[in-house]
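hi! just following up on the protien thing from before. the input was this:
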Amino acid sequence: MLAPGEVLVLGERISEAGTSVTHPAGAEVIDLGDRTLLPGLIDAHVHLFLHPGAEDLQTVQESVPQRTLTAVLAARDDLMAGFTAERDMGTEGAGSADTAVRNAIDQGLFPGPRLRISGNAIDILGGHEDAIGYNPEQRVLPNATQANNAVELVAAIRQQLKEGADFIKIYETGKDSLEGGRFSTPFQFTAEQMAAAVREAARLGKRVAVHATGEPGTLYAAQAGVVSIDHAFQLSDATIKLMREKQVFAVPTFTIFEYFADHAATPAEGARERAMLNYHAQEFRKQIAAGVPVAMGSDVGPFPHGAQAREFVLMVQFGMTPLAAIQAGTVNGAKLLGWEGQIGVLKAGFLADVVAVSGNPLRDIATLQTVSFVMKGGAIHRRP
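and the predicted 3d structure came back as:
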């Protein structure tokens, strides 16, 4: 962070950064006053193809072309909020449409963050993203690609990568429950199946990320060598040790659960969501104390795009220092997305992804919720 500070941008990269830099003749000078400069923010868990409302109905009622247009607008909203890079964790039934969104942004056709995309995530029959609760005769499509064994997993991974996925997203745990303070969730793929998935992705230089909220699914994922365990409500001592040793990131996604608690259909449902969030916060404190690496991810989509900087506030509220939370959403996010050494730092040679906020986020992390300047790759997308 620079406050005060200057950044010299040549083309799409930072040439100098510090208290003061060279002022070449003819250079455009952008004076942001006493604002604090930071690297562009990174959200490692987003859903561009979702918006607030019933998730399962969106995938049934809205066509893939309609959802793709929604995703383009969501990407713009996230960029304007200061998120210059993101990882899209599954199109929720829109197949490989995120490939088109990523490519259009890269080609400069639409404003949006740098994207790592997974296509349709992978699930089991009757699993977390299957269409459960409908008349079976209607054959409502699931929100993820189904695979039920190692052979089908490998085939699904090959198809996702053929269609343009940058990484593979797998649902490793199913429906969560919290009874009497005891958390439980069924695993969906065995340890051997998870290992087969990671091996197949690695064969082509790709990585696997998992939706995994608790044991033993989180342990199976860590043993297999996934790059991140997203949500991570419950991690055993063995899982924590593996994640620390292998530098497997936990991506907590607190904001989505706060949103569900605040917007529950009934008081009882709201109480359940709030209890789950409190349990998650309690476990998170143990994880960071034990040295589990953390990357910021909000699960934005079911709540409004562009509002996900709330995640920083909750990470601090639940035990992180402001500096650690900012690192989770910059340098750690860059490493998780495979852009280490390219983004996440204000440093010569890095891509010129720069945001500015009023005040000092080390003293008030909530300032990250009101980004007033956004530059991505040297191009200005938002000015005060």
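The chain has one domain: 40-339.
The radius of gyration is 20 Å.
cheers
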